Amino acid sequence: MVGGIREARLATAEFSKDMVETMLTYFDQYAEDGVLTIEVTQWGLWLPHPETKSRQFLGLAKLPDYLKQ
Question: Fewest CB within 10 angstroms: 18, 27, 49, 65, which?
Answer without folding.
Answer: 65
